[in-house]
Amino acid sequence: MNILIVYAHPQPESLNGAIKSFMINHLESSGHQVRISDLYQMSWKPTLDDQDNLVRDNSTPFHPSLDSKAAYENGTQSPDIATEQEKLRWADTVIFQFPLWWFSMPAIMKGWFERVYAYGFAYGYGEHSDHHWGDRYGEGNLSGKKAMLLVTAGGWESHYSARGVNGPMDDLLFPIHHGMLFYPGFEVLPPFVVYRAGKTDTQRMQAICDALSQRLDSLHLTTPIPFRKQNGGDYLIPDLTLREDIRPGDSGFSVHLQASTSK
């Protein structure tokens, strides 16, 4: 299997750094081909701006999506963007590893998505009609590939439970899982989350590695999060709202899961 790791942590001598090294060694020893995008080590430019199209007309105002479209279609993207897109095409599975900072990913990784997800590459294509509204949310150029988040958090697991003060971890990660991974077509695997990251001793690190080994060895068997496909019949088009007969009266993130469908 071709596995891409997109990694965001500034300190190599950290828990994340140790987990990353273990993961690479384990995957390679298991026969997988591994490539890594270590964003801090790469000095990744996180800002989407008019420099990302190498031949843009500077007499016109910068338009994030249209400039991205022109650069992608004309082959004039910044080389670092094109390189990351090539890695995504190569990969069968992508693992995004990061610490949970202020309830989301580090800014440098958010900038990776903003720049690499070009118009025409990750969005902005497919038929738009009365029965199909673009190739997205379960369809798209990244269909057939798997993605998984590997997240470290400083708080206790109970802090991120259904009634925890931080909110459920599944809800915090929903914008990433559904909006950044499922949107362009990834099959999204359940996340691997390490809680109380700052309280990791040798014994606990071994337990983390043991559990991670099991997850990595079963990537091809892991059932994806059962998000509803946009064009699968559950949503009204072009309204893009869930049909009234599905989970009537309910709202929130959980209604977008097939497993929650009322019969």
Automatic annotation (TrEMBL):
GO cellular component terms listed in the entry, alphabetical order: cytosol
Alphabetized UniProt keyword annotations: Oxidoreductase
Record-linked InterPro entries: Flavodoxin_fold, Flavoprotein-like_sf, NAD(P)H_dehydrogenase_qn
EC identifiers of the protein: 1.6.5.2
Top-tier EC class: oxidoreductase
Pfam families linked to this entry: Flavodoxin_2 (PF02525)
A Gene Ontology molecular function term of the record: NAD(P)H dehydrogenase (quinone) activity
Domain Flavodoxin-like fold: 1-214
Protein name: Glutathione-regulated potassium-efflux system ancillary protein KefF
Taxon lineage: Bacteria, Pseudomonadati, Pseudomonadota, Gammaproteobacteria, Vibrionales
